[in-house]
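Pasting as-is:
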Amino acid sequence: MLRHLADKLPISRWQRDLSDSTVLRNVGVALGHSLLGYLACRQGLAKLAVDPERVAADLDASWEVLAEAIQTVMRRYGLPDPYEQLKALTRGKQGITRESLRSFIEGLAIPADAKARLAALTPTTYIGDAAELARRI
């Protein structure tokens, strides 16, 4: 309904027809429907509950989450084709495991302290730039 108003009103004004007054009477209806939708969404979200054990299990099974951090470090030290190297690590396999990721990190030509920082990361502890991005908003 709001889309219709956005499409109709400018054209009505440009053409100087009188149908815009009829359309303007429906602005309240469109806003009322929007309000009801927002309230229903908020009510539905309030019913959601987090299962910490399930979240932890999902994260522990998702070591590919660390690919972003590894690619960033690889780019920082000028290694060629970071994305392609990680893709080769996972191609034809079920997924990345802790062991396969650690052996991949050990084989990188980067300083030892960078390897240690990458090896210390887990899917549970890695948040990337989320905290900084949240502060910007």
